Amino acid sequence: MKNFTRLFVLLLAGFCVCAAGMASAAEPRAITFQTRTMGTTASLTLVAPDSAAVADLAYQALLSLHHTDSLMTNWTEISETARINRLAGSETVLLEPEVNRVLTVAGEVGRASEGAFDITVEPLVRLWGFLGGEPSVPSAEAVTAARVSVGWPHLEHDATAGTLRFLHPATRIDLGGVAKGYGVDRVGEILHDAGVTNALINLSGNMIALGAPPEKEAWTLGIMDPEKRHDYLGSITLRNQAVATSGNYFQFVMHEDTPESQRYGHILDPRTGWPANGMASATVWCWSNRPPATCK
Question: Do 120 and 106 have their domain in common?
Answer without folding.
Answer: yes
